[in-house]
Predict the structure.
Amino acid sequence: QSALNQPASVSGSPGQSIAISCTGTSSDVGGYNYVSWYQQHPGKAPKLMIYDVSKRPSGVSDRFSGSKSGNTASLTISGLQAEDEADYYCTSFTSSSTWVFGGGTKLTVL
Amino acid sequence: EVQLVESGGGLVQPGGSLRLSCAASGFTFSSYDMNWVRQAPGKGLEWVSGINGGGGSTYYADSVKGRFTISRDNSKNTLYLQMNSLRAEDTALYYCAKDWAAGATRKFDYWGQGTLVTVSS
């Protein structure tokens, strides 16, 4: 159950777009469309931003989008805003009927 | 409104035990899988354990298998995590998370605020 691989940090200026990658294996990301992304602000519980690779929960801005190619999923945030600054985590269902998270990515809005 | 309220955390010595609880409300508890996810101080999220709605199927991360036991009491709308043989590396904020599993959809759609477990002598 190795953690999914995410970049430790990404940054962008307001209005720009950024992408965060999440690389796993054929036993998790590549094998299932159960990939989710969570946003976590300091001292707060995680918030669901994307599920089933590319679906957006009600109330989440359409500036957030998800995709997957092979064993790598991606979260794209367009039109960066100051409030997007947070930690982002991907997670995937696995062939063992467990879940695995990525190590997390700190997004800095410059 | 869905609410998940964790309790039972605290300071425990290495080798000790602790039982966490998660009181659920605002949804039909027995219809949903539930999970425990933890976050060590300053670190990332780690899935710990999951249980199906009826309680008959349970799943564990390798890091806790054989030491932790997940269970639920659907008559009390409560999820539990029995933690035995605790180690310093189990120190973390423990969240319970509701698991929406229907058809082609899986997601942890609601999370509690967490309960802090500190393992130290």
The first strand of chain A starts at residue 9 and ends at 12. The interface with chain B takes residues 1, 3, 33-34, 36, 38, 40, 45-48, 51-52, 55, 57, 87, 89, 91, 93, 96-104 of chain A (CB under 8 Å). The CA atoms of residues 93 and 99 of chain A lie 5 Å apart.
